[in-house]
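seq as requested:
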Amino acid sequence: MAQKDRTFRIFVSSTFTDLQEERNALQKEVFPKLKELCLKNGCQFQAIDLRWGIGEEAGIDQRTMRICLEELKRCQTTSPRPNFILLLGDRYGWRPLPEEIPADEFEAIEKHVKGDKDGKLLAAWYKKDENAIPSVYILQPRTDEFTDFEVWEPLEKRLRSIFLNAVSEMSLNPDALAKYITSATEQEIRNGALKVEDAKEHVFCFFREIEDLPRDKRAKNYIVLKDDDKPDTEAEELLNRLKKRLKDNLSDNVIEYKARWTGSAITTDHIEKLCRDVYNSLEKIILSEIEQIKTKSSLEKELEAHQSFGEERAKVFIGRDSILKTINNYIKEKTSYPLAVYGEGGSGKSALTAFALGETSKNHPHAEIVFRFIGATPNSSDGRMLLEDLCRQISKIYGGEENLPTSYEDLVDEFPKRLALATPDKPLVLFLDSLDQLSEAYNARSLNWLPVELPHNVKIIVTTRPGEYLVALRNRIPQDSVYSLEPMSIKEGELVLDRWLKDAGRKLQDFQKKEVLNKFSDCGLPLYLKLAFEEARLWKSYTEEIKLNKGKEGIIKDNLFKRLENDHGRLLVSRSLGYIAATREMNGLAEDELLDILSSDAEFFNDFQKRAKHKPPEPKLPVAVWARLYFDLEPYLGRRSHEGTSLLTFFHRELGVVSTSEYLDDNEVKFQRVLSDYFLKQADPEIDARTKKRKKTWLGSSRALSELPFHLARAERWDELFEILVDFQFLEQKAARVGVQENIDAKGNKTKSYTGPLALLEDYDLTINNLPQE
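struct tokens:
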């Protein structure tokens, strides 16, 4: 299950043409205020209104409903409550064709189709995919002249009519029948409200009824008309039935409004009250959720993030018996040195660590197990914060002293003392995965903090890549304590592939599976197998042209990136991945940050506007455009919590490395200038009304204050960087709000201290180390 984060994602469900004024008002008046409310409380806010931008490319490849429902599901699984609101008028809305139909159901429908012409039309647009388990018939993408909606619409209506006539003679259960009959909006409502057990606690519906509305083509934007311009009574009945179900299920959460027909349009005086009601309804739930979020200590949140990271990587683990046996024997033995496992990027070190945690828990039930996946969170990559969090957690387990030193040097001395709290009846096993993900700060990469000789009752298992980190390890521990993680065998790879396919409800044709395993056998890397699986699970049984490139870089660049560029355009893909790669330590960006940054990228946004068929209500990239790309990127992205924000980053470091070389290296200064402009506006948002210049009060977001110096330096904006580093108000705000140093009090809450290394000093070090030499 996805981990819930501090971003409130509200899915806005509505029909399109009839409720534009209401949705525009929410975008302009309500959502910015909710965003401000969340920011003040250390959270983020996103309104997910997919009606802007979803109907073009997604409609052509017939994935509109899948993307809508996946985005709704993401709101429900990753966001605190509330996550769904509904605007409903007098229009039932567009009824899409089903994208997928179970094979047995489709073949039963074919038997009820009357006439060869209709049968051939159905067979032309639906192909059987036997790679799905069970098999399905899939609606084919629109190509050639059918990319034009005016050409496609009559055909879509004909196909829908064929289905409706056939299913009327069949006995299908309500859920199966719904995909042929219901509108896109009702399908969203079913999943966002009617099937949600606690919907009464956080789902809100806003109904608008138009008085004196004519029932002819004058009202074509407000009701559904048939081809003869008469009302679609079937659609009206479905709408009335839907509204009744919502009122019965949600009672007080359904708020109704009246508008009047003016002769050519409708009145809008109800919109002001609508905006107040939406804000008040959502504000109450959001503030309640924020109070629950605030009760967790920073250490608890850190541990949850690592737990989630490990569970994700341990889902499917097969083989590696030799190295697992080595780890188990090491824990049982009396050796006083750490054990190190090394392997190249993508060799499965994190998955090994995650699985070994569970095995250690089973085999050594009395041991206390502490673990960190370094790089999974910003704290774990920072040498000082890593040691502080480890010392705090170990002390909590063994009842040690709560107070800790603040400086890195003192924590290095303190770490072995906290380890020594372990007892014979409660030994300590510490796993530290990916030492190579440590940042350069404090010289932590030298591993001078890792004890050469361990206290009694303590075992430490670490993993790393070859390189300087492995050299440092070899200089500190005996050679017989260092083990290489060997490639997976082809047999192990096939077992893992079969498990992944089964979990995804997929299988492969023999020639397709052979392509995956042959290319995997060239390197034996689990990461390659994972990347190959993600490509192969998209293959249909009728997909004959398949080719996977060799090696990690080859499959990422020539399969994944080329597929994404073909489907979404190179500019959107290169900018999205390039901006994530350009962040500090590739920590990533929040989704709303990325959307804002893409919108502020003049080259990208101008290109988008030229191609867009519908002008968005504000000069911002519609979330639907990003949602369609995210749908394809999701397997390759991870999330990490940073400064109260959920950031999108790369699931695996290799994806970031290839993104950097492919999209960033030749454009970094250009990318960094856009990023620095964005964070400058976020850090210093106030504008003088008379001069139109910034007031330089630096009262913007704490995250922007933290990130701005880095991006100014990378953008080579030396004058502006120098200016803020001698600006007393900037220094004061950063010291007060970002903190001159992060510390944790006895209750696990962040406090501010003026001792030890200051966060601001890192800005000065960054500047000194990057200034061009004359």
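The radius of gyration is 29 Å.
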